[in-house]
Design a protein that fits this description.
- By secondary structure, the chain is of the alpha+beta class.
- Helices cover 31% and strands 29% of the residues.
- The chain contains 8 helices and 13 strands.
- A 5-stranded antiparallel β-sheet has the order 11-10-9-12-13.
- Helix 3 packs antiparallel against helix 4.
- The protein is globular, with a radius of gyration of 18 Å.
Length: 258
Amino acid sequence: MQGIIVYNKVDAERNWWFIDEMTRIFGQHEIKITLKIEEELSFENLPDFVIYRARNHQNIERFERLGVKVFNNSKTNEIANDKFLTYTFAKNLGLEVMDTTDNLDDVSSFPVVMKSVDGHGGKEVFLINSKEEANPLSGKRYIYQKVCDELGVDLRVYVLGNEPKVAIKRTSNTDWRSNYSLGGHAEEVEIPEYVREIATIIASELKSDLIGIDFIRKNGKWILNEIEDPVGCRMVYHYSNYYIFEHFVSRIINVLGN
């Protein structure tokens, strides 16, 4: 059995650690996995499976049409990488989210958080106090979201299959964004039962394999903010005893064997 792991060129250079760990663990099961750069992707000589760590759901759809199993599937990738789709997805499931619009003219009170729909890692996220401050880039789509109750804090839950496994709380004393990649502090915490239920609903609906679900605070409780696919694994590796690589590989092998 052979698989490929797909990254775009920039992310591949930043994620050699993830690639090496996955390659090593699959090797222990006598399964070869090869890195493929998204910009050079070919749909000839198809692999047995794909671990897709980029953000183009159309490529995943093409693999799926050709009968190749992809981790994660195209639905998960599409929704997770469009923040407005995430918002509408959550609303359709009856989940609580911050008031959000994709039309600046609909914003009646400030401040709001302005996010590009396809940004990640805390990039292209702005706290604005007026329409004049918005200054959206040409060709970019944005959402405008009511500010949560506690800036600089969030909770990421790592979900394998339908099972929430680990929660990492991120906080920042220097930035209103809590992203670990921007210098936020991280620590493992217990997953509140109601958060576990929300995460399970989302993963079950998406039929995802490995995602991160980010929560922010509203009225003293955690509510959905974003879904991460691909989800970064540095925090869970550094701040918990859950060896996510081995568990992810085991899931992939089990799914392929069924």
